[in-house]
TrEMBL record:
Short name of one Pfam family: Hydantoinase_A
Domain Acetophenone carboxylase-like C-terminal: 518-683
Span of domain Hydantoinase/oxoprolinase N-terminal: 17-193
Residue stretches making up the Hydantoinase A/oxoprolinase domain: 216-500
InterPro entries xrefs: ACX-like_C, Hydant_A_N, Hydantoinase_A, Oxoprolinase-like
Entry protein name: Hydantoinase/oxoprolinase family protein
Length: 692
């Protein structure tokens, strides 16, 4: 990503814009000096015992190496895994749930679905709130919004006392039909705040006011569960930045691929649970548009997981129901599929003598054995070293030196158990990792109804380029595009992201010309919310308001999201809305009912405030064969071959070469299999094509 420029240029002083992504193993920095167009990038090992400390370390290194001045930082955006790690590790706040009397089992019943429907040994996860911390309150709102029973505040007071006695730090209030009118939840929340000001309280309607009590309750619970750790982390972050003299307000990447300020992040914690994975897709979308790529499959491999997403028409795809650990998240999010296979994924031999890879990861501490930081178990990274693809240069901007002897030792232990040569064992580890990713990608393609042969694979993250070309070859994909700095694409995503707020209102309305006035009124109310939200984020530019509806045929249990044009509502064009629904239904399910009665369930609005306008400098391609830095032995599966090693810094637009080959750079290593033809384009992307 060398050679980025921006249209907004200050005249008298430096203008630094910094994007940061905190992963499980590394924290990535992408810093742009807007006046000169110079882009600096960096990786720093994470400090799990003190999240955020590595951020200060990175800023110090940027100052030493790149002349970065924190006092001249005008934009600071970062994504963090603090929230999602809190859920995965189950280290969140002890919570109590106040719900309707008689509905105390709402989060245990959930949707009565098993995670693996064909497994006899499958079990559902334990709820984040145990049954003894769920309190039924005599209160009832009817579906039409009329009150059947007012909340019994004496019972509320008794429940508050019991919750505090049981160690609750916070309370979630979720009542039936609060999506219609939230007055009962608000009244109980106010009473709790008066009786127990030391407890934090969230109501389901303020977090995400959508129909279906389980989805609304679980989203509010996730928000409360991570609130203390996220709020504490962000407060410490603000103090650290202030101490470093950073004038820019910290902004956070959101699960929906947009941004919000840190003050909102302390309250709306649930919105940033998937911030890191979403940032990667947003960064990849921006890179795809710059390169003119229309259809992209992203492959983001870090130390712990591999994340996949589809980019169609240069835009990320969105959805709801993404999994946070074992729990679904019911707010709009960039659609990402994940699997527990990363560079730090540990290889093991089970009791039956079968070689397995992941999901356990060595993380950053101790990390893969080859890092020399105390790791004693073989990982995917160690297997890459043993095969010879990795270990020929410093890694992570000089912070790591690969110890090939340690990698051979730990993989050799597995080889002895399997009674196989060490190189074959290492290749088997890589084959298993690729095959597990293959299965997950095929699921994603089937759900989306796309043919991956029409897509280009974009590998990024520290591990994406190591395995990406092998996965593309197995999937039958013909093209791979690796950005100039694959290791910091997620950090770039934060740098180029827009402000984005999502708003929803549940209505039940048949689609007809008579009902459009009510639908239009709901959209106008959401539009006011969206504009007010952008103003609170201090956005003073134009606002883009995107409209959609969740719709279904009458009698269906679930609905689909349909994008609407504003003029359809302005003109009262119910026919156009119906046609859009039929078309979307046909695309998703391969059928539609042109005579079916249509029902609108939710109206949605996305308020977008454009981020900084950045673009790449382009350089003319001069076709010439690349000159390798040296040649080296690599075990390719069929045997040991002597392959070319190229320095990415020496590759210029128009450089060509063929695989098998290794390309080294500061933030990652690109392994290129036999048969691939490589070319550097005018944006310094490395393009691979495979023969038919």
């Amino acid at each position: 990503m060398d050679g980025v420029i921006t249209a907004d240029k200050a005249q008298n002083r430096a203008d630094w814009k910094v994007g940061i992504d905190i992963g499980g193993t590394f924290i990535d920095f992408c810093a742009l000096e807007a006046n000169s167009g110079r882009l600096a990038s960096l990786k720093v090992l994470t400090t799990p015992e003190d999240p955020g400390a590595e951020l200060m370390t990175g800023l110090t290194l940027l100052a030493e190496r790149e002349g970065f001045d924190p006092a001249h930082m005008t934009r600071f955006v970062h994504g963090t895994t603090v929230g999602i790690n809190t859920i995965i590790q189950r280290k969140g706040a002890p919570l109590a749930l106040f719900t309707n009397a008689g509905f105390e089992d709402v989060i245990e019943l959930a949707r009565l679905r098993m995670p693996e429907m064909y497994s006899l040994f499958c079990s559902r996860p334990d709820p984040l709130i145990s049954r003894d911390m769920v309190f039924g309150i005599p209160v009832r709102m009817r579906a039409d919004g009329s009150e059947s029973q007012a909340p019994d505040m004496a019972v509320v007071a008794s429940a508050v006392a019991a919750a505090k006695a049981n160690g609750a730090q916070g309370i979630i209030v979720s009542f039936l039909h609060s999506w219609r009118i939230a007055a009962q939840e608000a009244a109980v929340k106010a009473t709790i705040a008066r009786l127990a000001p030391d407890l934090f309280v969230f109501s389901s309607a303020e977090v995400w006011p959508v129909i279906r009590e389980y989805e609304r309750s679980s989203t509010a619970i996730l928000n409360g569960y991570v609130h203390p750790r996220v709020s504490g982390y962000l407060t410490a972050l603000e103090e650290r930045l202030k101490d470093r003299g950073v004038p820019a307000r910290p902004m956070l990447t959101k699960s929906n691929g947009g941004l919000m300020n840190a003050a909102e992040g302390k309250r709306a914690c649930v919105n940033m649970l998937l911030s890191g994975t979403a940032s990667g897709v947003i960064g990849a979308s921006w890179l795809a548009r710059q390169a003119g790529e229309d259809k992209i499959l992203t492959l983001d491999i870090g130390g712990t997981s591999a994340d996949f997403a589809l980019i169609i028409g240069g835009e990320a795809q969105f959805g709801t129901g993404e999994l946070i650990g074992e729990f679904p998240l019911h707010i709009p999010s960039v659609s990402v599929s994940s699997i527990g296979v990363g560079g730090g994924s540990i290889a093991s031999v089970d009791a039956q003598g079968v070689l397995r890879v992941g999901p356990e990861s060595a993380g950053s501490t101790p990390g893969p054995a080859c890092y020399g930081r105390g790791g004693e178990r073989a990982t995917v990274t160690d297997a890459m070293v043993v095969c010879g693809w990795l270990g020929h240069s410093e890694m992570a901007y000089g912070q790591l030196r690969i110890d090939t002897g340690l990698a051979h030792r730990v993989v050799g232990k597995l080889a002895a158990r399997l009674d196989r040569p060490v190189e074959q064992t290492a290749q088997a580890i890589l084959d298993i990792a690729v095959s597990e990713m293959f299965v997950e990608v095929e699921k994603l393609a089937s759900r989306a109804g796309v043919d991956l042969r029409d897509f280009t694979l974009m590998p990024f993250g520290g591990g994406g380029p190591m395995l990406g070309a092998f996965l593309a070859r197995e999937l039958g994909m013909k093209r791979v595009m690796a950005p100039r700095r694959p290791g910091v694409v997620s950090a770039l995503g934060g740098l180029v992201a827009d402000l984005r707020g999502d708003f929803i209102r549940t209505i039940f309305s048949p689609l007809s010309s008579m009902s459009l006035a009510g639908i239009r009124e709901a959209f106008e109310a959401l539009a006011r919310e969206g504009r007010d939200w952008l103003a609170a984020q201090r956005h003073d530019g134009a606002a883009e308001l995107n409209l959609s509806c969740d719709m279904r045929y009458v009698g269906q249990s679930y609905e689909i999201e349909v994008v609407l044009s504003p003029e359809w509502l302005t003109d009262g064009n119910a026919v156009a809305i119906a046609q859009a629904f039929h078309l979307t239904h046909q695309q998703l399910y391969d059928f539609h009912d042109p005579d079916g009665e249509i029902e609108l369930v939710n109206v949605r609005l996305s308020a977008v405030g454009a981020g900084p306008k950045l673009s790449f400098l382009e350089t003319d391609e001069i076709r010439a064969a690349a000159v390798p830095a040296r040649r080296l032995p690599v075990y390719t599966g069929a045997g040991v071959e002597t392959v070319d090693l190229h320095d990415r810094q020496a590759l210029v637009p128009g450089s060509t070469f063929h695989g098998p080959a290794v390309v080294v750079q500061e933030d990652t290593t690109f392994a290129i299999p036999a048969g691939a033809q490589a070319r550097v384009d005018r944006h310094l992307n490395l393009l691979l094509t495979f023969p038919e």
